[in-house]
Amino acid sequence: MVIIQKNLELLPVLVNAIPMEEFDAIQEWLTDCSLTYTA
């Protein structure tokens, strides 16, 4: 997962590993925060 911030002058944040059992919860949290993501 790569997090790209609205301030494009900042470097993207790279997340190397996400436990699969947490993946759905993270997607729900991103949706609740109105953040765009692709899986």
Question: What's the quick description here?
Answer:
This protein has 39 residues and is α+β, with helices and mostly antiparallel strands. The protein contains one helix and two strands; from the N terminus they run ββα.
Description:
This protein has a two-stranded antiparallel sheet with strand order 1-2. It has one domain (2-32). It is of the alpha+beta class. It has one helix at residues 20-32, and strands at 2-3, 13-14.
Key features of this structure:
39 residues; 1 helix; 2 strands
Question: Can you lay out the helices and strands and say which pair or pack?
Answer:
Layout (H helix, E strand, L loop, with lengths): L1 E2 L9 E2 L5 H13 L7
Antiparallel strand pairs: 1-2
The amount of beta strand, in percent, is: 5-15%
| SSE pattern, N- to C-terminal | EEH
Number of domains as seen in the coordinates: 1
**Tally of strands:** 2
| Biggest sheet character | 2 strands, antiparallel
Structural class: alpha+beta
Taking all residues together, what is the mean pLDDT?
Answer: 90
The Cα radius of gyration reads: 11 Å
Helix content: 25-40%
